[in-house]
Amino acid sequence: MAVVLDALASFVKHMLTEMAKAEVSMLLGVSREIGELEGKLLELKDALADADRRRITDKLVQRWVGVLKDAMYEATDILDLCKLKAEERRESAMGGDPSRRFNSILFCMRNPVFAHDIGRRLKKLNKRLDGICRSSQTFGFVRTVGDQGWREVRPRPPTAAVSKTSPVMERLSLVGAKIEEDTMTLVDMMTKEGGTSRAEGNTMMVIAIAGIGGIGKTALARNIYNHQAIGDKFPQRIWLSVTQNATETELLREAIDQAREEHCCHPHVTSNCLTLVNIIRDKKVFLVLDDMWSVAEWNNVLKAPFSYAAPGSRVLVTTRLDGVARAMGAGYLHRIDFLGLQDAWSLLKKQVVATERDMIEIETLKHIGFEILGRCGGLPLAIKVIGGLLRQRDMNIVEWERVLNNPAWSIGGMPDELNHAIYLSYDDLPPHLKQCLVYCSFFPIRCHDPMVQMWIGEGLVSSSCSDNLEEIGADYIEKLTLRNLMEPNQELGGQHYVMHDVVRSFCLYIARDEVLLAEDGETDIGNRLGSQEFRVLSIGHKAGSGELEWNVLQKQRSLRTLITFCPMKFNPGDSLSRLSSLRTVIIDGADFSKLAGNLSQLKHLRYLSITNPETSRLPEDIGKMRFLQHISLFGCVKMARLPRSIVKLKQLRYLNLIGTSINSVPRGFAELTNLRIISDFPAHVDADSNGWCTLEELGPLSQLRNLGLTGLENVHPSSLATKAMLCSKRHIVNLRLACRSSLGDDISEEEQQRIEEVFDELCPASCINYLTIRSYFGRRLPNWMMSQRAEVPLERLKFLLLQNLAFCPQLPDGLCQLPCLETIEIHWAPAIKRVGTEFLRCCNHPSRSSALGAFPRLNKLVMDRLLLWEAWEWEEQVEAMPVLEELVLHTCRLTQLPSGLAFHARALKILTLHEVHRLVSLENLPSVVELDVSCCHELKGIANLPSLHRLVISCCPELQALDGVLELRRLILRDGRGSVAMLPDYLADLNLAHLTVCCGLGLLCSMALGNNTPEWDKFCHIPRVEAFSKNKFRVSYTRDPRYLDTNISPLLYGIPRFISDDGKLDVRSM
Length: 1070
Hints:
It is built from 32 helices and 41 strands. Among the domains are: 1-93 and 100-139, no CATH class; 176-194 and 202-335, P-loop containing nucleotide triphosphate hydrolases (Rossmann fold, 3-Layer(aba) Sandwich), CATH 3.40.50.300; 340-406, no CATH class. The protein has a 23-stranded mixed beta sheet, sandwiched between helices. A five-stranded parallel beta sheet has the order 2-3-4-1-5. It has a three-stranded parallel beta sheet with strand order 30-32-34, with no helix packed on it.
């Protein structure tokens, strides 16, 4: 689906070129008509850029563009049918023998009806285009020659401002003293004791940040959320993006996920509410509700569970609507001002400057820069987008003046809320990037990796060679990110991207005549679908709105993209046959089985994604869908088999079987040589077919980039694994090898030896970046991971995940000199007892440089549930892990950390130790800033951590000494059993800013007695102290002014409610 006229014309032209190569028009006897169509498109092509611009404000041009688009869409349908019919007849005539000659004259003679019908439709279409060409002359379009309407400028080297992974990117959005002043004002307001919102019955103070879209509300909220004082004051922080499309279940799940740092899978709102209540009960919570459009989400979903948070909890709301802030009961409404000129200039420079030389040169352009900024109106988003545009240009006066004098600044007729700077950046894009950007706006939440697959399916990614379309699509995303029109989602990481609401609104305005975004339950959705034809329909789900009637959609006969995230109600007779122009179908939340029977009637379909646990089948004749490129069956747990005819889908590039019950593939799967991505390909041996193995089908698939294999325990003999030919696949960057389970403890030695041999034969090529091995039950890891037998060094490996290694006693020793390895995660390896020097020394690779030591780029190491691990050998003379920043040790028997860690891991910032039961002391880690120790029952002392700033201690009953932690400011003590009777003595010697204690009621009562107990001298010098128990009781203390507050009843325990500034007890009633 292409809403950008120039992109649509380019797509049609590309189709014609491909048909010419395949001699399709000659085969059908319509060469003359095809030639005329191509000529008319060329005649119109030079005027399309100007027409696309003028249609935004000129309704007559808009109507003309609509007529031309209709004609082009019909052209794509006709050309598709031509290609389909020619391909079918070619295969039939050649009888599966590619050496046979195909007689095109004989084909036309045998298919006169089809050839005549296609010729008639093309003549009719050409006649329509004649009229469109004539009418174009009345508009006086400015014609551009070739690609003169835009320029693809090679960007200068990117700066940290466009890093996809670094949190620095967010900081570069913050400039000037004003945002720091605003941050401090709101932080002080939120960290003061007392205060509630004016909403009756609401014990949580609510503060709102209001302003127009793109003004910087979210940036300010993030600055507050990440402020040290907020982190010190509130043990529990939660950030929720409450967009217009957010559902009740999504909001609750996200709150639970953040609160307990694990995934929530409850499908029901009630269950999620109860879970959230149990997690946050009596904890001080700092809750951010970003991008609120309505108070309904708060009143109907979030207010009740968050009312169980401890008094003093806070809610920060960002919204464009003052009415939402008032309805939330905000005690204070903060309005964000537009940026001043100097702050705007600082922000622009941060987007544009890449080198020290740039910093000098940009000052010579300051006068022009100020004029450009004057047109941005002080809106931070507009400045960032313009900065992204200027980043693509040479830094000189000519280029900047072209931006300043661009007529897009003065274009009229756009709604007030749409920013001209965004339009200017959009207009500067080449047609294909314009279309890809607009396409991203069709989705309610985020853009991610399959977006590239959708672009490919819609023909938006073009290349003279189809082998590298995924790489080109990734490059498109990079270019849009460089221009700040999209940005990485730092919470999700990976290939996830988000689009700002203002940019999304602009894109939807551009596509307004062809796209409908709606939610089921909207009262007028039926009327809108009945009164206008759309090319794109995207329907989100709103909780409690029930099911959407499928027959409402069947009136949209021109629909080309259907995206639904809501339950559907199907009636007898409902089908897909009336939506025959569909190219993309995404159905999430409805049982697709009821429509599967006539799926093959969608002859133009390229992209099919089904997500529903009840969906159990695809149609047996799916092989008729010759254009299908993408199939995702994620989460279709009842799907047990693939149709045999799937092997006819020669254009298939993507197949996702994750979460299905499919355990085999049809014979002939090897013919799908266009496949680039396969997830959860099942390994299966058919004993009834002479030992045929599904892995044989992978051999010819040489274009694979991303491959996941599962069920490898089924492969026997191991020689069958060689037929997958992984070592010859030179394009794979992501490989996942898995057994379906480790088969329990009763596995035989023969089975272990067999799986070892199978994995040995699955040696990948050296191009691998990401490697995952799951549920492996061999006693040794594959030879190609061990230095003594390694045949293919994994020179490009960046990420290694080993999960559920039930019987492996040794870690791979061939990893330490890999130059690109950044992350190692090992989860559940209960047979490993020691990690020896072989892990850090690769003696069998003397040719490799050891100047940087072992693991030269390792940034993160996770060793999780190595239950018997008791020795880690790493001497000081062995250089290793020079850039390691994060280390996680979870459930092992180590008695000490190796001396080499402290001596060489000088970049280590974050250290997490959980259930390291036999660890006695922790010392001499000079660079560690954050330390979390929990359930280390024999740990007696922590010493000489001079950079430590934040420390969490949970259930470490023997820990009595804490020395050499001069920078420690934040300490959290947790006593899960409530058995600790007193605070540790070392507290009196610490220079803390904030202490949080989770303890039993006995200790809490002692603290609440203030200076009547020995506990008082341990914590009275600390500026802020918070203590609470699991049964709702709490104690809060501040040093200046001195104030002690508790909710423990003095009538029951004789505890004073307050202590005055002079330290005298002041007993008051509740």
